[in-house]
Write a structure and sequence with these properties.
The protein is of the alpha+beta class. It contains 17 helices and 31 strands. 49% of the residues are buried.
Length: 580
């Protein structure tokens, strides 16, 4: 089944209607637009321009733009920050000493700053005459200003900058392991920055995209906000990213035509708004913006009233790819129970998940659940010995090894020991807090950096559900497909998930059009078989949206219902929605 269609689009864009004249590319045009607006807004010879930054934006690039405005005063908001030592001490409990896991931080962005210095900065700004420009993360804490420019960046670009040596916000940790930087970003910086940004969307006069070095793109705040609103009027895709790994394979390289320069590709986040971005096209200029901006600004329209009421402005469904085709087994792992993730890490829901086998070679398998009559103490002892390098953990002595084939859907509620085997292409469908994976055994491998990958045996042992043995697995987690509807040319099957999991999944095998109700929930889908399909409006509210093989797409709850129309031949579509 290799090289089947070659029509996967790794750079999907959405054309934003009505704002083609409200975008400027590069320093010159951006500065000219801002200078023009500052002249309009001068009051008695004074004007205050605010450049507010998301952590990870290169401040020196924003200062370059600020300097070109001809300001009388350029002030650095970040001179008001607390010392590095003070911040590390105050946030110590959230950072923790674990290599991977921290605790979700519920502080505010202002907690990065010294309150007395903030007051002094406010007085300095108020006393300044002429044009004053204030630059830095959280600059809106001082004033909204006469002109408010928010400088944004995507989550993936931040991670690439970490890898290239960028520190966390105002920390001297450029040489720190990527896991450390990511942990501080995930648990602290991004939480505080998103919370802060969510309160200010409607105050942005402009948004500055800072994705590409020295290539800024400036868009008006109204065009930006209307662009986000247009996303929730119909289907859309996120821009995926791809990354190699120690167990990675070659299916995505062969079928998607991406990552050819890489040794392998292990991951693709193709439907994770917290990680992915969306591309907003204004005329012939494309702006990348974090997909979480859509979630944070239009949560009810995107998620649905019921889902928004349960989860808040968080996107609770995740689709991603795990490629072991020509690679190796994933790590043997378990995810935390809901009560454990709440008590230990401050997350209010956990990573219940499933593996949908988009493709598989012959004689492939998944490790899932425990065998009968496992000696818990002996298994725990063997895991600890394996962690020390004393033995190779005998996984098949303890864990079921279950054969799988293409289009099988294996359910994995939190607390179930599991991992996918080699020579599979997995579409992982799960709840979103993906970072909480307790690795138990990694087959004696080291990471791509040559360092043993972290395992979390003690966390894992506290969450393994020991009663989930072979009979329970067979009864509850494999071959759970149920026919919902069957008529000529249309077969609808419910494929999961398990009763503890908050998501329902359905497979639509179609030769003719079929109408689907959103059910007051965002729907996430993937074309798991067939060259292409179209998502059509039943009331004409959006244009037909083409989906290609293996592409993940999102249908906002506000769409209410839609029609799946096969393209060139029969198709299979996997859809997920939050269970009522």
């Amino acid at each position: 089944m290799r090289n089947k269609y070659h029509n996967y689009d790794p750079h999907p864009v959405k054309k934003i209607e009505g704002h083609n004249s409200e975008i400027w590319e590069n320093y010159g045009p951006a500065a000219e637009e801002l200078r023009k607006e500052t002249e309009k807004r001068k009051k008695q010879g004074r004007v205050l321009v605010i450049f507010d930054l998301y952590p990870g934006v290169r401040k020196e690039e924003v200062l370059k733009l600020a300097a070109s405005l001809g300001a009388d005063h350029i002030l650095d908001m970040e001179t008001c920050r607390k010392s590095e030592e003070e911040r590390l001490k105050e946030f110590e409990d959230y950072i923790t000493d674990d290599r991977v896991f921290g605790v979700i931080c519920h502080k505010k962005l202002k907690d990065f700053y010294d309150s007395e210095k903030l007051e002094a900065m406010k007085k300095e700004v108020e006393a300044s005459d002429g044009m004053t420009v204030l630059v830095g993360m959280g600059a809106g804490l001082i004033a909204q200003g006469d002109l408010y420019v928010y400088c944004d960046i995507t989550r993936w670009e931040i991670q690439l900058r970490y890898r290239a040596g960028m520190e966390n916000w105002n920390l001297s940790n450029g040489d720190a392991p990527i896991l450390t930087k990511y942990k501080i970003g995930f648990f602290i910086e991004w939480r505080l920055a998103d919370r802060y940004k969510k309160e200010r969307y409607d105050t942005f006069d402009y948004v500055l995209e800072t994705e590409e070095k020295d290539h800024p793109k400036l868009v008006t705040g109204e065009a930006f906000r209307d662009g986000l609103r247009q996303f929730v009027k119909g289907p859309f895709r996120l821009e995926p990213y791809f990354d190699p790994g120690v167990w990675g394979g070659h299916w995505m390289q062969e079928n998607f035509g991406v990552g050819q320069e890489k040794e392998n590709l292990a991951w693709s986040f193709d439907g994770v708004p917290e990680e992915n971005c969306v591309n907003m096209q204004f005329g012939d200029i494309t702006v990348k913006t974090p997909a979480m901006n859509v979630t944070l600004y239009c949560p009810k329209e995107l998620l649905g009233e019921r889902v928004y009421g349960r989860y808040g402005a968080e996107f609770p469904i995740r689709f991603d790819f795990l490629d072991t085709m020509g690679g190796g087994n994933l790590s043997l792992q378990v995810h935390p129970l809901t009560e454990y993730i709440q008590d230990t890490f401050g997350m209010h829901y956990t990573q219940d998940e499933s593996y949908y086998f988009l493709d598989a070679d012959e004689d492939t398998y998944v490790y899932l659940g425990l065998k009968e009559n496992v000696d818990r103490e002996k298994m725990a002892d063997d895991l600890r010995k394996a962690e020390k390098g004393e033995i190779a953990f005998p996984a098949e002595e303890y864990v079921n090894k279950i054969p799988v084939k293409k289009h099988d859907h294996v359910l994995i509620p939190a607390g179930t020991i599991h991992c996918s085997g080699k020579n599979t292409m997995v579409l992982e469908i799960s709840a979103t807090p993906y970072i909480f994976t307790f690795k138990l055994w990694d087959w004696g491998r080291v990471g791509l950096d040559g360092i043993p990958r972290p395992v979390h045996i003690e966390h894992g042992l506290k969450n393994i559900q020991w009663e989930r043995t072979t009979p329970w697995i067979e009864e509850n987690l494999i071959h759970q497909d149920e026919i919902v509807s069957a008529k000529k040319g249309c077969l609808v099957e419910k494929t999961g998930l398990q009763v503890r999991e908050p998501i329902d999944t359905f497979r639509y095998s179609l030769e003719s059009p079929y109408i689907v109700s959103c059910g007051d929930s965002v729907n996430v889908g993937n074309l798991v078989e067939g060259k292409n399909a179209y998502i059509e409006s039943t009331d004409g509210s959006f244009a037909p949206f083409e989906v290609h093989y293996a592409e993940t797409f999102i249908i906002p709850a506000d769409v209410k219902e839609y029609r799946i129309v096969p393209g060139e031949g029969p198709v299979k579509v996997m859809l997920a929605k939050v269970r009522a």
